[in-house]
Specification:
about 450 residues; alpha/beta; about 40% helix
Length: about 450
């Protein structure tokens, strides 16, 4: 077998993800798409985060694809504090040491790897997370290397967050949809905003932008992004190459096998179960857990609730024993087959393929409860723009505890009211739109073809 560092190719892709679960996951799925075109992909991060990406991927097995090469870059030990569920700002500040360590210590070994790869290819295309921008600057040192920023957030949230950073430009060219006022205040910690600022200057060295969305859903905002007057940045046509999650799930469960919750789901009526999850980076307080649990029970709807503590910066450290949340007395015993609580890593794609509805911060047919980052913008996208979600809590009320009554009302609106039925009809239409986007002649396939042609020119 040839060494991937010496094998001569016309074009090679280097993926540099941000070290957080959702970001790792998206670029690994993107690696699969690009590798399917016969292009070698080098997935570059620390050994910890490479392992995290591989063991948690759903829908396919990365170890079966010969032209995806994982490079473990050295990363010195860094602090892994526990999450603070009582913090006023819900952004996962406990992960900041891992973010800082990646930027401080991965740059030099990445530069060395890039120097070894550049002589082997006519062109090296570096795809890096937009908040992990040092690869863009490193690409400038090599005439056959060029960098592309990958935006893991929705085009909607990317556009409005950029609007705020630019001081809300009033260019008449930007014909904006009429939406209620909202802002990113409270979405991030000051420390993380400083982190973003330190990376944003390097984005000027990028050759283009990639978005995990499709034009048939967010085309209006993809186009608006190309019109934003970003200083020092050439306006290029962005590529909308999503959604990147596999449309067809092959049931790959990795070393864990098929999860117990899927066996339970098999016994439920189709589209009758609500999936409750707040992602891998958030921990709830005991009071929030109590109110959420009672609201779910009072709603009398079927549900799967993923209840686990947030990831820490290194999920493999021995001291990272997750906290076991306590529920109201006899809560789980009283579910009587109607609900299920999952306390470990859940196969989200397979669950959603059967559920269809979700309570949490993002995606869905959705009962929205935004907590941090781009979630308030995604909630607005779902409830106000796509009309496919109902709010459990508005962002303006983020400092309030959500009561069980609010949870019950939101869940019932989504699951049993006429309003919810109309949203499910729209969801079915959207599933068809997304399938069309990836079929021959579809917008996402065209954009991916265009990007592949561009880097292979």
């Amino acid at each position: 077998m040839e060494n991937p560092l010496t094998e001569s190719v016309s074009v090679a892709v280097v993926m540099v993800p941000f070290p957080a679960q959702g970001h790792l996951n998206q670029l690994l799925h993107f690696s699969r798409l690009i590798s399917s075109r016969g292009i070698p992909v080098h997935f570059v991060t620390s050994a910890t985060h490479n392992s995290q990406a591989q063991i948690r991927v759903q829908g396919w097995d990365p170890l079966t694809i010969s032209n995806i090469h994982f490079h473990d870059l050295p990363l010195p030990p860094f602090s892994v504090p526990p999450p603070d569920p009582h913090a006023q700002n819900k952004f996962p500040a406990h992960l900041q040491p891992s973010f800082d360590a990646a930027v401080l210590h991965l740059r030099q070994p990445f530069a060395a790897l890039l120097r070894s790869l550049c002589p082997t290819a006519h062109r090296i295309a570096i795809i890096h997370d937009d908040v992990m921008a040092f690869p863009a600057q490193e690409s400038a040192a090599h005439p056959n290397a060029e960098a592309y920023a990958f935006h893991s957030t929705s085009a909607f949230s990317s556009f409005f967050m950029n609007m705020e950073l630019l001081g809300r430009p009033t260019d008449e060219e930007l014909k904006l949809p009429i939406l209620p006022p909202f802002s990113r205040e409270g979405c991030f910690t000051d420390q993380f905003m400083d982190f973003i600022s330190s990376q944003s200057e390097m984005l000027r060295d990028d050759a283009g932008d990639l978005y995990n969305t499709c034009r048939m859903v967010e085309g209006e905002f993809v186009d608006l992004l190309s019109k934003l007057p970003i200083p020092g940045k050439t306006k290029l046509r962005p590529w909308a190459v999503g959604p990147l999650n596999p449309i067809v799930i092959d049931g790959h469960g990795g070393s864990r096998g098929r999860h117990d919750c899927l066996e339970w789901l098999d016994k439920q009526p189709p589209r009758s179960v609500l999936y409750v999850s707040f992602g891998s980076n958030l921990s709830l307080t005991e009071e929030e857990i109590y109110e959420l649990g009672m609201g779910l029970k009072q709603s009398e709807q079927r549900f799967i609730w993923v209840l686990r503590e947030a990831d820490r910066g290194d999920i493999f450290r021995e001291e990272n024993n997750l906290k076991n949340y306590t529920l109201p007395d006899n809560f789980e015993l009283g579910l009587k087959g109607v609900g299920m609580v999952v306390r470990d890593w859940a196969p989200q794609l397979e669950i959603l393929a059967q559920c269809g509805e979700r309570l949490g911060p993002t995606v869905g047919n959705l009962a929205t409860w935004p907590m941090h980052s781009d979630q308030p913008f995604n909630a607005m996208l779902m409830t106000e723009y796509l009309k496919m979600g109902v709010p459990v809590r508005d962002w303006a009320r983020r400092e309030e505890i959500v009561g069980s009554g609010d949870v019950e009302v939101g869940v019932r609106r989504l699951m049993e009211n006429e309003e919810g039925k109309e949203m499910r009809r729209k969801a079915e239409e959207l599933r068809g739109v997304i399938r069309d986007a990836w079929s021959k002649g579809g917008s996402s396939r065209k954009d991916l073809d265009s990007f592949i042609a561009h880097i292979s020119r």
